Amino acid sequence: MNKKKLLIALAGNANVGKSVIFNYLTGLHQHIGNWPGKTVERAEGTLHFKGYTIDIIDLPGIYSLSTYSLEELVSRKYIAVERPDVVINVVDASVLERNLFFTLQLMELETPMVIALNQMDIAKSKGIKIDTKKLEQLLGIPVMPTIAVKGVGIAKLLEKAIEIVEKKPAKKHPQVTYGEEVEEKIGKLMEKMKNVHFVYPPRYVAIKLLEGDEEIEREIQRINPQIISAAKKLAVEIENIHGHGCSTVITSERYEAAGCIARAAQKLVSPIKPTRGERLHNFTTHKVTGYLTLIVAMLLIFYSIFTFGDYTSGLLSDVLYGLEPLFAGAFGTGIVGALIWGGVMEGLIAGITIVLPYIIPFYLILYFLENSGYLSRIAFLMDNIMHKMGLHGKAFIPIMLGFGCNVPACLGCRIMETQRERLLAAFVVTLVPCAATTVIILGLVGNFLGIHWALALYLVDFLIIFALGRLAFKVVPGEPTALIMEMHDYRWPHMKTILKETWFRVAEFIKIAFPLIIVGSFVLKLAEVAGWLEPIAAVLSPVTVVWLGLPAITGITLIFGVLRKELSLVMLAALLGTSNFAQVPGFGPVQMVVFTLVAMLYIPCIATIAALVKDFGWKKALFITVFEIAFAILVGGIAFRLLTLVA
Amino acid sequence: MEKRNSKRREAPLTTLKAGESGIVTYIRFGHMRGRRRRHRHIMQGHEREWGFEKRLMDMGFTPGTRVTVVKSAPFHGPFEILVRGSRLALGRGMAERIFVEIEQE
User: Fold this and answer.
1) Complex confidence, ipTM
2) What does the domain layout of chain A look like in residue ranges?
3) Which phi-psi region, left, alpha or beta, contains residue B67 (left: φ > 0; alpha: ψ -120 to 50)?
């Protein structure tokens, strides 16, 4: 039987429970990727319901449909070009006015839609009572109350969405009516565009032209430049009447309309008194208790991840290395055996012992913090510090991630609004000492020179991050964006959503990192078997021996570090034949510090480079890589000379 | 719009103390530093000033809107602001450009 296909899009503000609804609807039949050529996430899923095969797409959480961010542009184009059969607009009942502002814009796109009035429970606890019938009537769109985290109302929502498709409502839903002058200008523009066929509805195009929307202007410019000049003239007329820019006037009136509807549909039933969430918010953003909470939370998170990671990683490593005799039995101990075990399997083990023990817990905690709302409070508290680097508060989140692993941290830079900020944040992230770098710092300097030296190295690294961050901020062209972020109410996160988000992130990590780690490890093993390591060390010796004052052998180990940073230390132990570095001649305290400093800065590991390529393209990834190698060598050489002078 | 009476004054949002409210009058923008002006031709559309003002509007800071400063983070940190029933964190640079009419008792 030929199944009927449907396409449903989920749209709405950030943090309104969209992804929870998405997860409810699609279960594990999900695919998460990027929009073609964009660093914007694209989540799709399929579901079978009432004889339909329904494709569901979860559009990014946005506040408007202008072109401020890539997310907004992508969402708008998707709805206009792909024309989903129905759009489910997820609305946060506890912040109705702001959410309706977005709803009104969706309506202007003239797409069939249904509203999921979500978080009814939170609204209730805040003393907000919403008359859904009234809201439905005011908007002219079906409104379905839901509590997504408990699964309440989701089935009915889906039924309603299908009903809309089947019935195909004859009349278009009503739209915002702007002030008389504005409406008159919209009418004039629409008259001019009568013969223009465009993906967006004519009224929408007219409004956007008056608002000065650059993307639409570009498109219309190609079709008929006269329309643009007419729009500009009309916009000036409006400006003269109101004394504000035309875009301001339109946005203002749209917000007024949203406010009117919200006020008419909602009632504040109980006097506003601080809820538990409110008290928690005040505590966690307070100038004293807020920072204390933050420090304690960070320490707790890192301590538990590293303790858990260290233990599990050791355990896994023991188990997996236990397989070695098996492989030796199957492939022998000759060249083939060495390549298969030392190349492929050890690469795989390296990957596994990072992913399971470190990455998974990191993501779980991250998504817990994000969904509960604490992450936005962290961004609030850290904004001024991030500003010193030309970034804003949100950048603290990928940087924090970077301490665990740079790969997810680079991918996490997608939370920044503009491509420029994403790149700046990613650059800073690649300098953050990840878990593997920490192994070197603690294992070498911390172990043999004392913890104060290790801490000093961290401090140096932070200063370098700071300085380079500022430098990059000055050099990369573009406007800085300041922090502007909603701090939604605290809530208990939906565990299934967290688990799924973690799972998709981990899968993404495996896809990016594993092939490279395995191939890289195979190539290095090949070089070792072929006896190329010595010549390579000799070629590198002007840098390693002369400039950095390190033993020639470190040239090889630093190459291994590209695969995974702590391999540079592991390999050093293997090649020196001892892990008691203090007894190695020619590898004194100065060399230890220089080696660690270089290992810390010299290159993002291969998986991080892959993540950079994925989000920023080859050129930028290559530039960052080459820059950091040169920079590490420079800093290492200077440190060598300074330290020798002191010692 | 009627003339402001003498009891009201217009000032950047940053001058409000914790707990104070004001009505947005306008957003000042266009003060680009020379360095950035040079790069203007290569800037992406969404990174321009237009985007900045639009963003604030989209988040609800339209003229006539009542905003309340809850607090600001220490060391010249961002502001916590209530606007249109939601709670926003707003960087100081942005808050400085929003002018409000302060209601005085």
Assistant:
1) 0.81
2) 4-167, 180-268, 525-646
3) beta
